[in-house]
# Entry
Amino acid sequence: MDKISSVFGNMVFNDAVMRDRLPKDVYKALKKNMEESTNLTLEVANIVASAMKNWALEKGATHFTHWFQPMTGITAEKHDSFIAPSGDGGVIMEFSGKELIKGEPDASSFPSGGIRATFEARGYTNWDPSSYAFIKDHTLCIPTAFCSYRGEALDKKTPLLRSMEALNIQALRILRLFGQYEIKRVVSTVGAEQEYFLIDKTLCEKRKDLMFCGRTLFGAKPPKNQELDDHYFGAIKPKVSAYMEELDEELWKLGVYVKTEHNEVAPSQHELAPVFTTSNIAADQNQLVMEIMKKVASNHGLICLLHEKPFAGVNGSGKHVNWSLSTDAGENLLSPGKNPGGNLKFLLFLCAVIKAVDEYQDLLRISVASAGNDHRLGGNEAPPAIISMFIGDDLEALLSAIERGEAYTNNLDRTMNIGVSVLPPFKRDTTDRNRTSPFAFTGNKFEFRMPGSGTSISCPSYMLNVTVAESLRQFADILEGSKDLETSLISLIKDTVAKHKRIIFNGNNYAEEWIVTAEGRGLLNLKSTVDALPLFTLEKNLELLKRHGIFTDIEVRARQEILLREYSNVLNIEALTMVEMANKEIIPAVSSYIKALADTAVAKKTLGSDISWELEKELISGLSSISMCLHKAVQELDNALIEANVIEEIGSSAEYYNKKILPLMKEIRIAADTLETMTASRSWPFPVYGELLFSV
Ligand code: ADP
Ligand code: MG
# Structure
């Protein structure tokens, strides 16, 4: 057996293991549950638990944990051992169906946005049979959802599962119209391409900003950056390929189909792409990918940075969420296909996405909103904060022909009558790549490029699921009552295109003009998290989320509050780190350098009046005055932070951090970075950009 097959999924209680170890009827019941969301009985759970336990013990596991994704954005686990007293002073290994289904972690310190007071410690974790259990660090990890005593979602998995159900219901209604009664389930599929930086660990550890904030708060531009594009797809360096090799193997063991790895545009930046799967499993696996990436890095003397913008002026890191819809028969509903009937169906699903993205630009923007991603959106080589869609020239021409009620003939003379027509077999490369679009159609799926590298893909995925579910719901309402399906379909597609074509933009999203054009089209430009989050609770959004059972009003408000608070917290930590680095490292370092210059000047003076010490004088004067500016700005920031502390209302606090603290941080950075360029390397207190970016 080849190496990959022998390790792949080794540590996963996957379908093959289940088929092998479970009685046939139990296996069937579990599969039915996974595929059709039927309820599981306790008997079935007991048998599954016992098989899981035996399998895990054979693999050397000693503990089990309900693995969940609280609102902190990372995963949480509380380990219990399998041990139970045997009654005769010995131990037996126990794990019941009850323990598999329900956990009760005393996890009261996770953010709940006011849903749960700390004294109400009760929260439950609930087994998610649709995502496989796995073993990590001698612990059987059971993917679970996390909710409050009253069942309110406190995690990132629950809304995703809810959204998949909503999407399934509405998509099936549409498929029934096309006569596809045999289809039992439609799922959203996701492949998340993950970008990251690898930086030398010893260098990182010398910088408080990287250690505390995961990004540099200071750093002048190095002489060489990414201008030469010599890193992109370049040969992978030995240290990095050793890292990738171990990472691949660890992820294969956990059943993650990691497929491609290459260098990215920025120096020290790389990308990993797994093969797509259901959005729920993709979200779980992406959490694992991030965790394992960091862990493996430290084995290689490296640190893996998952921040969206670790280095100013250098490409940030994103996480492209490739998204599509698939039936249980394996049909990709966003694949243009070959037969005419299928094409009309494709156009309908395409229109559902177009309508969803246009009507819920705000929710999609919110789904990627974070303090870190604010630095990236609109920055180097990243999509702007404006949401628009790229569908390629062919499809755009096709849609506008339909809108005008004309036949569509493309330049290859592939004729296409509207409606009952033949859409030419759609070759992948008929859509050129548009790397600048935040939401691009790439042949048979959409690629949402705004999500940041560090955050869970759950939120962007469930927002896509629910907004598209809403389009499909409205479409189904219209079409189900129609006498002449084909005519109704064509007019529906026509109307949708007319109404929502403003969201389609195939041009360069990085161009200045686009901002103006987009404004003219009435598209939203929510530049920061603070601009975006208030729209979460707009009536239309509450209505949508409630209608499809994703969130109650309370849950939305809680999430809004958590995100705003997180924003303020992140900025608070960054600002405090800046103050500390400026006061304790930069200013003292510059002073020492000034002292050295002054000593030199004095020494020169003793050599006689024909030796000039003008140079030292000029340098000292420049350094002193800029240090003074830095000092003043730091003082101002210090005071502003005291003021920020007393603002109680969460929205006002986030607003204050955005409007007051952030600009002061910029000012401090400019002064400090100027000082860096004027100070001798040996005097500068921490590694600079050139060292950080080019040392691995
Ligand atoms: P591209 O050439 O457009 O980059 P790739 O085939 O390399 O496309 O895929 C990029 C990512 O998109 C991968 O993670 C892949 O698994 C994912 N992907 C491909 N097809 C789908 C699909 N139908 N649904 C969701 N993700 C998909
Ligand atoms: Mg990509």
Q: What stands out?
A: The first helix runs from residue 3 to 7. The CA atoms of residues 209 and 217 lie 6 Å apart.
